[in-house]
Amino acid sequence: MMRREQILNGAVLLGLIAVPLWAWSSGEPFIITLATKVAVLGLAGVGLNIALGTGGLVSLGHAAFFGIGGYAMGILASHAQQYVPLFEWPLLVEGTKSMPVIWLVAIVFSGLAALLIGALSLRTSGVYFIMITLAFAQMLYYFAISWPAYGGEDGMAIYVRNSFPGLNTLDPIQFFAITFVILCMTLWFNARLVRSPFGTALAAARQNAERVEAVGIDPYKLRLAAFVISGMITGLAGALFADLNRFVSPTMFGWHLSGELIVFVILGGTGRLLGPVVGAAIFITLEHVLGGISEYWQIFLGVLLLGVVLVARGGVIAVIAGKGVAHD
Amino acid sequence: MTIILLIEQVLNGLQFGVMLFLMAAGLTLVFGVMGLINLAHGSLYMVGAFAAAAVAGATGSFLLAMAAALGAAAIAGVIVEMLVIRRLYDRDHLDQVLATFALILIFSEGTRWIFGSFPLYLNIPPYLSGPITLPGDIQYPLYRLVIIGVGLLVAAGLFLLISRTRLGIRIRAGESDREMIAALGVNISVLYTIVFALGAALAGLAGALVGAIQSVQVGMGEPVLILAFVVIVIGGIGSITGALVGSLLVGLTDTLGRTLLPVLFGTFMEASAATTVGAAIASMLIYILMAVVLIFRPTGLYGAR
Amino acid sequence: MTDVVLSCTKISKAFGALQASKDVSLDLQAGEIHALIGPNGAGKSTLIRQISGAMKPDRGTVHFLGHDVTRLSAIERARLGLGRSFQISSVIPDFTVLQNVALAVLGDEGNSFHFFRDLLKGRPTVERAETCIARVGLEDRRAVRAADLAHGERRRLEIATALALEPRAFLLDEPMAGMGAEGASEMTRLLDTLRHEAPILLIEHDMDAVFALANRISVLVYGEIIATGTSDEIRSNAEVRRAYLGEEETA
Amino acid sequence: KVGMITTLSGGGAGLGIDVRDGFLLAVKQSGNSDIEVVVEDDQRKPEIAVQLADKMIQSEKVDVLTGIIWSNLAMAVVPSATAQGKFYLSPNAGPSQLAGEGCHENYFNVAWQNDNLHEGAGAYAKDAGFKNTFILAPNYPAGTDALAGYKRFYEGELAGEVYTKLGQTDYAAEIAQIRASGADSVFFFLPGGMGISFLKQYSDSGIDLPVVGPAFSFDQGILQAVGDAALGIKNTSQWSKDIDNPANNAFVESFQAEYGRLPSLYASQGFDTANLLLSAMGKADIDDADAFRAALKEADFDSVRGDFEFGPNNHPIQDIYVREVIKEGDVLTNKIVGVALEDRGDAYAEKCKM
Amino acid sequence: MTLLSLSDVTASYGAAQALFGVSLTVDEGDVVALMGRNGMGKTTTIRTICRMMPVKSGEVRFRGRSINRVPSHRVARMGIGLVPEGRRCFANLTVEENLVAAARPGDWNFASVSQLFPRLAERHDQIAASLSGGEQQMLAIGRALMTNPTLLILDEATEGLAPIVRQEIWNAVRTLKATSALAILVVDKSIKELASVADHAVIIERGKDVWTGPISGISKDVTDRFLGV
Ligand SMILES: Nc1ncnc2c1ncn2[C@@H]1O[C@H](COP(=O)(O)OP(=O)(O)OP(=O)(O)O)[C@@H](O)[C@H]1O
Ligand SMILES: Nc1ncnc2c1ncn2[C@@H]1O[C@H](COP(=O)(O)OP(=O)(O)OP(=O)(O)O)[C@@H](O)[C@H]1O
Ligand SMILES: [Mg+2]
Ligand SMILES: [Mg+2]
Questions:
Q1: Which positions, given as ranges, span the membrane (chain C) (predicted)?
Q2: What's the complex ipTM?
Q3: I want to staple A135 with a disulfide (CB 3.0 to 4.6 A). Which of B167, B287, D26, D62 is the partner?
Q4: CA gap A109, A103 in Å, rounded
C-alpha cells in the first residue's frame, strides 16, 4: 500500500513536469502558467499540511503567512523599482529585485509571524484554534486594506518579474522550473520530517497529547516548531505567487485563501505527502475547465467537492493508493 | 461627544449584539450541540432572506414572509441534513469544513440562478417602521427594538430547550457519544435532523429579520457567518449563555470602537489621519477582542474546560 | 532498602466542597511495591495525578530523588524519571505498537527535535522498544495499530510504554484492569521483577495481585490514609474490611 | 479579438453581467462579424483576473482587453496588459493612478475617473447651498478617493467625516453620529449591499436630512432592493436612462427588448465601450497600433450620454448630471434634474506624461 | 423461552475478521457468562448483538425476531440494556442527566438506582468526566438499568470497582435474577465471581464459540485450555 502511494507520488510529479513541457513545445504558455500556479499553491498547501496533516493544527489563518510572503516581495520589489530605500535609519536598506533575497526575507518574516501567532494561538485547541488563527489573518487583512503606503485594497503591481541569477524569469517555463525545484526540495524535506523523531512525536501529539507529555515531551514546543516551519513554507509560496502574478493585494490575506488551502489539503488527502499538490491540481483544473462551461460553474464545483468528501473518504490519494498511512 | 450620544451608541451596540446573537443562535445550536462545523449556516440565512423577500413581494405580508423564511430554511435544513450532513457527524472537522464549503457554493450560485444577480427588496412593514422616542429623548427605530425582543426570546427558549429538556440532554449525550446513545435506545438520527432543521430555521429567521434592514443579496451570508463564529467562539462553544454574552460583547466593542476610536486618536493626531487610523483599527477590533479572549480563556468565556 | 525514592508530604486537594486528598503523606522506597487501595472515589487517581504533576495540589510537597518537584510540570517530572500508566488506556491510536513504544524511548532519550533522522531506522531506539514489547508479551502484535488492539492488549502496551521510559519510579494506575486471569497473572510476574529496576506505586482493585505483590499497602478512604502495613496487617484490619474489602476477600 | 474579464459569479456579479450584456448588445447591433468576444469570469479576485489576462494575451491572443469592474482588479491587470502592447478599454473602473502618473497611451477609460461622480456630488452640494455636510465612505482607497473628490468641489463645513469598515452591514452607530452632528446634509459612498443597508436604516431612523451620493447606490439594478427609502434622493451620474438623444433612446429600448429589464449605468458603459471599439475598428486596422490608437482617441461614436470626448490622459470629458429617484408606476428609477458639472475631465490629467 | 440467539455469526473490523462463527443462546431469566481470553472476540460479539457493527453472516435473533437489520436504537428499545466496555459515560453530562437521558419507564428509576449506588446520588450534579473510574462504572450500570431492559449485557462491568462494590453488584445481580425475569449476558474476568451468579457459560476462542454448557461444568481442563489460568 505504501508502495502504491509512492508510485502515485512519482506519477504526479512527472505529470506536473510533463504538462508544462508539452505546453511549451506546443506554444501554450497559459498552460505553463496554470502549472506554475499548481506548483506554487501546492507548495503553500504542503506548508499547511505540516501543521494540519501531521500536527493536527487546523489553521484557518495561513493566508497570513502567504500574504506576508507576498508583501515581502511586493514591498522589496516596489522599492527597488522606484529606487527608494525601505528605510535609511538605523541602516540603509534598499529594495531588491533578486528572488533569492526576497525568498529569504519572506521566509524569515513569515517565520517570525508564525512564531508570534503560534505562541499565542497554541494555547487553544480545536475549533478555538481554527478561529484564533483566522482572527490573526483577518487583522492583517484589514490592516493591509486600510494601510495606504502599499496600495491598500488596490494592492501593488510589480510590472516586471524579479530576477534569478542565470535564468530569464519572464519566460514561463523557466519560472515554472524554479517553482518546481523549490516544490520538490520542500517535499523531500517534508518526507524526511514525517519520519524523523520530530515528525513522529508531532503526529503522536496530534492523536494523544497527554501520552506525549507522559513520556516527557512537550507538545506545545513541538507544535510551535511545526507551526513555524509550516508558516515559513507558506510564506515562501506567497512570495512566489506574488511573482507569478507580478502583483500583490490584500486578498492574499483573505480567509478565502486560507479556506482554499485547506480545501487543497483535504481534497488530496490530509497528511499525505503530495496531497496538497494533487488537491491544488484538481481544484485549479476544475476552476478553469468549469469556468468556461457555465456562468454557474461554482454549482458544479460544489457538487464535485461534495462528492469527494462523501465518497472519496480520506482524499483522492487515499482512494487511488489505499489507506496506507491513513489518518482516519 | 455628548452623554446622550454615548448612551445611544451603547444601545446601538447592544442592539447590534442581539442581532448577532440571532445569527449565531442557530450556529451554536448545531455547532456546540451536534459538534458540526456548518459553514453553510450563512447560506441558510440567505435562504431565509430570499424566501421572505419572495413571499413579501408576492403577498405583501410581512408575517407571511417571516413564516416563509422559517419554513424554507427549515426545509432546506432537513434536505441538507438528510443528504449530506448526516454522513459527516462521525468525520473530523476537516471533512465537515470541506463539505459545507461545497454547500456554500451550491447554495450561493443556486440562489443566483433562481433569483438573478441583483439584490432583492424586503422592507420593514409600515406598522414596525420609523423611530419611537425613548426616555432621555433618544430616537430609536421601533424595528430594532423588535429585533432585540425576538433575539432575547430566542435566547431564553434555546437555553431552556438545551439545559432543561430531555431532548436537550439527549442531544448533548449524542454529542459526547453517538453510538452509545443509540445503543441505549434513542433515535439519534431523527433527533439530529430536528436539531439541524431548528438551527436552520433560526438562521432563516435571522436572515429575514435582518434582511429587512440590510440588503438581500447573494453572498450576504458570508460576513455574517464569520461574525457568528467569532461570537460563539468568544462565548464558548455550546453555551447559549456564552453566545449571548459573546454577541453583546462583540456588538458593543464594534460599535463603540467605530465611534470612539477616531475621536480618541483625534486627541493626539491630525483629524483626517485620525479618522483613517481609527477606522482601520476599529475594523480589526473584534478580531483583536477574540484573540485576547482566547489567549486568556482558551475555551471562550463560558466554554467547558 | 530504606532509600526513599519518592515521597509526598501533607498533600491536600479539594474540588469545591469535596476534599479529595486530606494531608496525605506517603513514600516509596527503593525496591518495593507500595500498593494504594481504597474505595472508588477515595482519591487514589487524584493523588497519582498530583504526584505525576498532572494536577497541582492545594498544599503539600512532592519530593522525587531528593528534589522538590512540587512546582515542576508533568513533562519535567517525566523527564526526571517518573513513569506513569493511565487508568484508562492512553495510547497513540494510529501508531503501531512498535511506534508507540519507540515514542517513549524517544522521550527518554530527550531529543525529539531531530528533523532528519529516520526514527524507525535508529537501531538502539528500536532495539530498546522491542525489548520492552517482548517483556509484556506483545511481540506478535508489534506491527498492529494500537487502535486495533483488544482492550487487554492495550493495557499491556500501556505498561510497555512505561517500561521504555526506564523510569526511576513507576506510578501504575490499575494496570490489571481489563486483563484476563491469564494476563493478570503474567502481569503479576512482570511487576514482581520490575520492582528491582524501579519501585512501584501501585493502584489496583485486584486483591489477589495486591496481596501477592505489595511490600506495603496503604489504604485511602475519603482522601485520608487510614492504614498502612503489610498484606496480613491490612487483610485483618477491621476498618479496611468494612470500608473496602468486604467479607469475601478475607475468606 | 476582444477579451472581456469581468465578474460573473459571486456577490458582485450583477455589475459584470450588465457590462457584458451592454457590450454584447452593441456588438450584436453592429452586425460586425470581424469582432470576436471572449468572456471570462474573474470571481472578483485580482489574482484570477491577472491569470485570465495572461491567458487572454498568451493563449487567446486577443488584441483588446476590457470588462473589469473593480479598481483593485484593474490595478492588477491594466499596467501589465498595456505594457505588453495590448489595448485596454475600461468600462467601469477608473483608479486615480491610471489617470495620473500611471497613465498609458493604450489605456482608455470609457466610464469615468473614479472621483468624477463624487466631484459631481460635491458640486451639487455647493449649488444646493449645503453648509455642513456629514460624509462617509468605507475605509479603502476608493473610499478615501471618494471623500477627497467630494471635498474638491464642496465648499461648506464638514459636520463629520467617517470611514466605515468595508463590507459593514449595520450603520446604526454612524446614523446616530449623523443625528448628533448637527449636519444639514449627508454625502455617502457605499457601493453594493453596503449602500442598500445604509439607506434602509437611514430612512427608518427618522432623520430627514437631504442625502446625496454617486449613482452606484441608486442604479437600476440595485434601486428596487433599496425600495421607497431611496425616493427623492439626489445622486450624480454621467448617464441616465432619460437623457434625450437618439442613441440613448434606442439603447434603452433595445436593451429592454433584448434582456427584459431596464438598463443600468453599467450596461450603458458596456454599450459605449463596445461602440467606441467598433468606431475605431471602422477607421483603422488593429494591427496598426498607432492608427488604431488615434482612432480610439477620436471617440467618434454616438455615446448614449451625449457628448463624449477623451482628455489628454484618455479619460472622458463629460457632463455629470444630478438625478433624482422617482417612481414610474411600481418601478423606481431616476430622472435628471440638473447638471452638476459640465465637461468635467479629472484632477489627475496633468500628472499624466504620455 | 429463548430470548436471544446467535447462530454462526461472523463480523469484521474493516478487512480484519474478528468473529468466525459464534453461536449462543440466552433464555429468559438466564444468566449467561461469556468467557475467553483477551482479544478473543467477546466485546465484538456484544457489539453485533447491539447492532453497533454489522453482522456479516449468520443471524442474531431477539425475542424471536431477526435483528440483523434492525437499527441500534430499535434493538435497545426491544429491551436490551448495555453496559459497554470502557464505560462510555456521556462525559459532558451530569450524573443525573446521564441516567435520565435514555430512561424508559419501569421499576428502575433514579430512586432505585440511587439505592443501589448511593455514591451516584451523592454526586448527582457532577459532570461525568470528573468522576472517579469506579464511579463512572457505577454510572454506566445505572444508566443501562434505567432503560428497564429484559436483557442486560454487562461487558466487564466490574472492572475497576472496589471488592466491596463488586460484591454488591454481584449481590444485586443475584437479587435481580431471583426477583425478576431479567436475563443477563455477562463478561467478566473473575471466573470465581462469575461462577457464583451465572447459570451457563459460553467460551470464545479466536472468534468462535468453543465450549458451551452449565457453568458448573467448567472443569480445570477447560479453564486451562481456553482461559489460560
Ligand atoms: N475535576 C474534578 N472535579 C470534581 N470532582 C472531582 C474531579 N476529579 C475527581 N473528582 C472527585 O474526586 C473523587 C476522587 O476521585 P479519584 O479519581 O481520585 O478516585 P479513585 O480513588 O481513583 O477512584 P477509583 O478507584 O474509582 O478510580 C471522586 O469522588 C471524584 O468524583
Ligand atoms: N476497532 C477495532 N478495529 C480493528 N480490530 C479490532 C477493533 N476492536 C477489536 N479488534 C480486534 O478484534 C479482536 C477481538 O476483539 P474484542 O475486543 O472483541 O476482544 P475481547 O474478547 O473483548 O477482549 P478483551 O478481553 O481484551 O476485552 C481482537 O483481535 C482485536 O484486536
Ligand atoms: Mg482511579
Ligand atoms: Mg472486551
A1: none
A2: 0.83
A3: B287
A4: 10
Supply the DSSP string of D58-125, one letter for each residue: HTS--SEEE----HHHHHHHHHHHHHTT-EEEESS---HHHHTTT--TTEEESS--TTHHHHHHHHHH
Q: How many CB atoms lie within 10 A of CB A195?
A: 15
Q: Cα(A93)–Cα(B58) distance, rounded to whole angstroms?
A: 65
Predicted pLDDT of residue A328: 31
Q: What is the pLDDT of residues A184-222, one digit of tens each?
A: 999 999 999 998 999 999 999 999 888 888 888 899 999
In degrees rounded to 5, what are phi and psi of residue E213?
170, 180
Least confident of A293-302, D28-37, D48-57: A293-302
Span C103-141, pLDDT tens digits: 988 888 877 777 777 777 777 888 899 999 998 888 899
Give the structural domain span for E192. Answer: 1-78+186-229
Q: How many Å lie between the alpha carbon of D141 and the closest alpha carbon of chain A?
A: 6
Q: Are E124 and E96 in contact (CB under 8 A)?
A: yes
For B257, the 3-state DSSP assignment is helix
Contact A306 B88 (CB under 8 A): no
Residues 43-102 of chain B whose Cβ lies under 8 A from any Cβ of chain A: 84, 87-88, 91, 93-95, 97-99, 101-102
Q: Which three cell numbers stand for residue D268?
A: 450603458
Instruction: Give the pLDDT of residue C96.
Output: 92
**Backbone angles phi and psi of B278, in degrees to 5:** -60, -45
Cβ distance E39 to C15 less than 8 Å, yes or no, reads no
**Closest CA of chain E from B282, distance in Å:** 37
Ligand 1 center to residue C43 CA distance, Å? 5
What CATH number did the domain enclosing E61 receive? 3.40.50.300
- Within chain E, strands assigned E span 2-13, 16-27, 31-35, 57-62, 65-66, 80-83, 151-155, 183-187, 200-205, 208-214
Question: Who has greater pLDDT, B303 or E23?
Answer: E23
Cα dihedral across residues B165, B166, B169, B175: positive or negative? negative
- Which pLDDT belongs to residue A192? 92
Q: Tell me, using a 6 A CB cutoff, whether residue E79 lines ligand 2.
A: no
Residues of B with Cβ-Cβ distance to D134 under 8 angstroms: none
How many domains, in total, are found in chain A? Answer: 1
Residue C176 per-residue DSSP state:
T
Read off the pLDDT of each residue in B254-283 and give the average, rounded to a whole number: 84
Residue E23 lies in a domain: yes
Cβ distance of B119 and D196 shorter than 8 Å: yes
Counting residues of chain A whose pLDDT is more than 90, the rounded percentage is: 51
> How far, in whole angstroms, is CA A282 from its chain's centroid?
15
Q: Is residue A242 included in any domain, yes or no?
A: yes
Q: Which CATH number fits domain C1-81+167-251: 3.40.50.620, 1.25.40.10, 1.10.10.10, 3.40.50.300?
A: 3.40.50.300
Domain boundaries, chain B: 8-220
Give chain C's mean pLDDT.
85
- Is residue E199 situated within a structural domain? yes
Q: How far is A165 from chain D (nearest CA, A)?
A: 23
For residue A28, pLDDT over 80 is answered with yes
Say what the pTM is.
0.86
Give the B:E interface size as CB pairs under 8 Å.
71
Q: What is the mean pLDDT of residues D38-49?
A: 87
Is it the case that residue C250 has pLDDT exceeding 50?
A: no
Q: How many domains does chain E have?
A: 1
E74 touches chain C (CB under 8 A): no
AA identity, residue B86: R
Backbone dihedral angles phi then psi of residue E65, each to the nearest 5 degrees: -125, 140
Cβ of C189: how many Cβ atoms within 10 Å?
Answer: 12
The one-letter amino acid code at D344 reads R
| Residue C152 CB–ligand 2 contact under 6 Å | yes
3-state helix, strand, coil in chain D (%, to 5): 45, 20, 35
More confident position, C181 or A2: C181
